[in-house]
Design a protein that fits this description.
Length: 248
């Protein structure tokens, strides 16, 4: 397969689905694909029970060879696919991504495990009330005041089982080992003011992946693809990057 004909598949983050990214990726060569078991056909029995099973399900559904992109949790899944099957992933574009969402031994740029467990309990109690607060929190520091509203307006509905499973995947995933086995070029796109997955995590990834380039987006938080609503002719810099990459 020629480089030109390799499919470009982009994976969304937790809780929002593909709809916001479909708008951001319009006009590009990227095709957004729902996380395993979390799309229109989501049923409890189709949702992988752990992160490793989610990676396996994703690899089973992907073309034999592709380029992968992903935002947040989607980026972690894309990176895990490249670690597991490097011969199948010819390029990675990771946006707002980290190798570990929670703090672990030797990893300070994550969320406290107790914080994520408490959040998981709140989501089970009242996801409809908690999701808007969560989106607002990870948009803090974004110079676009309408970023959170835009994301909420375009978010895809997710089942409770899908929300619970995705948080479990975030709790489990630790991708620090095996990064040297990622043989493809990697583009890292990160908001400089990301309060959820700090830009320091992206700098760490750049230093530990064999072939990585980091593009930090000034003035953006965890969703750097959210358009600049107050200046729509400009858009977000990340939007331009996603339309241009992967230049591999």
């Amino acid at each position: 397969m020629s480089q030109k004909n390799i499919p470009n598949i982009f994976l969304p983050g937790w809780g929002l689905g593909c709809a916001p990214l479909n708008l951001a990726l319009a006009g590009s060569d990227w095709q957004c694909r729902d996380l395993p078991g979390c799309g229109d056909d989501q049923t409890t029995e189709k949702i992988p029970e752990n992160f490793a099973a989610a990676v396996a399900a994703l690899l089973q559904s992907l073309p034999p060879v592709c380029r992968l992109g992903g935002w947040s949790l989607g980026g972690m899944l894309a990176l895990a696919c490249a670690q597991t099957a490097p011969e199948r992933v010819k390029g990675l574009t990771l946006m707002g991504c980290t190798p570990s969402f929670i703090q672990r031994e030797g990893w300070e740029w994550g969320r406290p495990p107790a914080e994520l467990k408490a959040f998981m309990a709140k989501i089970r109690q009242d996801a409809a009330a908690i999701l808007p607060r969560f989106i607002g929190s990870f948009c803090r520091g974004d110079t676009e005041p309408e970023a959170a509203s835009w994301l909420l307006q375009h978010a895809s509905p997710m089942s409770q089982a899908a929300l619970d499973a995705g948080l479990g995947w975030l709790f489990e995933a630790d991708l620090r080992a095996g990064l040297q086995g990622v043989s493809c070029p990697v583009v890292l796109v990160h908001g400089e003011n990301d309060p959820l997955m700090p830009v320091a995590a992206a700098h760490w990834l750049e230093g530990h992946l064999p072939d990585a380039t980091l593009r930090v987006i000034p003035g953006k938080a965890h969703a750097p693809f959210a358009p600049v609503v107050s200046a729509p002719s400009d858009g977000a810099a990340a939007l331009r990057f996603l339309r241009e990459f992967p230049p591999l």
